[in-house]
Amino acid sequence: MRHLKLAFVASATKDARKAVARLKRRYRAVDVGKADVIVALGGDGFMLSALHRYMGMGAPIFGMNQGTVGFLMNDFDEDRLHERLSQAEEVTLHPLTMEAMSRSRRRRALAVNEVSLLRQTRQAAKIKISVDGVVRIPELVCDGVLLATPAGSTAYNLSAHGPILPLGAGVLALTPISAFRPRRWRGALLPQRAVVRFEILELDKRPVSAVADHTEIRDVAWVEVREDRSRRLRMLFDPEHNLEDRILNEQFIP
Fold first, then answer.
1. Mean pLDDT for all residues in the chain
2. What pLDDT shows up at residue 2?
3. What DSSP designation does 161 have?
4. Is the model's pLDDT at 253 over the cut of 90?
5. Residue 33 resides in a domain
């Protein structure tokens, strides 16, 4: 069996740094640009950063947990790494692309988990929501609202009481955060190809920030979000801990 060329990256924690040094010596590490697989050591936050940083490399990422949260990670084990990789199952994700207008400046960012809009002051935000050019919510009074991918549906979206989405569901979750009006609106499931536009009402009085994973843009006037099918994020999981099963299992945790 041909051994894959491996590159190793790690978060800044002491344990992750020590572990990556041992793995590099043991498995003859190569540079990221020459790797067949990128092995990422850290927690879910570091995995998100790695997915963003190496998005254009083409190589899949195999995460091993060396952080506090490991939903997107495999168990850490220094042994049998080539064997695990040969048996690993691949998941392909498509990120969301966010386009935002902030004080006459247009900016873009990508999100693997979700795009969220959040109030910046003590006053509730007022947001108009359109889907594919049709106004669906003329005025949402809230702390915020988010659009989540299936992979991100178990993160902030779940904390905001949004639905958990199976990977193959073909939908996105539009979820309000502490909605005051309309009181009974609990969100919506949208086709993955939907284009969602958020327009900030009373933006000088009630400023709002837009966050795509780790990128925050403050004082936005409007935000458009859609799935970017041209970008592919490749992740590898041990068969017994594949991402689809993890997301499904989350629906049955009391």
1. 93
2. 63
3. T
4. no
5. yes
Question: What is the reported pLDDT for 1?
Answer: 45
Please pick, among 15, 31, 44, 228, the residue that the annotation labels catalytic. 44
Token pair in block for residue 248: 């499904």
Is 147 in the same domain as 204? yes
pLDDT digits 0-9 by tens, 128-166: 999 999 999 999 999 999 999 999 999 999 999 999 999
Of 55, 59, 19, 69, which Cα lies nearest the Cα of 35? 59
> Does residue 1 lie within any of the structural domains?
no
In CATH, what number is assigned to the domain containing residue 10?
3.40.50.10330
* 139 and 75 co-located in one domain: no
44 a catalytic residue: yes
Q: Tell me, yes or no, whether 109 lies in a domain.
A: yes
Residues 144 and 180 in one domain: yes
What is the residue-wise DSSP string for 204-242?
TTS-EEEEETTEEE-SEEEEEEEE-TT--EEEEE-GGG-
Using the predicted structure, report yes or no on whether residue 117 has a pLDDT greater than 80: yes
Q: Which domain holds residue 196?
A: 96-227
Question: What pLDDT is stored for residue 247 in this prediction?
Answer: 85
